[in-house]
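quick one before i forget lol
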Amino acid sequence: MKYCGIELKGDEARVIGVEVKGDSYTVTSLAVDRFKIKDPSSQQEMQSFANAFQLFLSKGHFDAIGIKGRMTKGRFAGGSTSFKMEGIIQCMPFTVTIINPATIRSKLKDTEINLAGCKEHQIEALKVIMTMMVLKV
């Protein structure tokens, strides 16, 4: 099974792909590991993001796609650009699951995560996938 984990942080979408076989997994090589938006007020920029991201997901042939959720209020609330990106991704013709950060913490508290092949900025996206595996999403 192929998973795609996504963390939306600031003005970029950080992605990672994982292939699962039995109880083990390996990080797959992706052509791109993040998508950045320079001007979120530009319709052309947002359409370019949407096209590039949809092409990425189509070529990846992922069985499951998950996004790390963000707080909507309070001190740690997500920014407007990340919510725009989430909306764009959710409108794509793929099933996308939003995973709450509290769920990630609770499901992975006793789990050792193998970071082989994972870059520093992809760790949170990998945790999304690990949680999806535990929840069997």
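fyi The CA atoms of residues 105 and 131 lie 9 Å apart.
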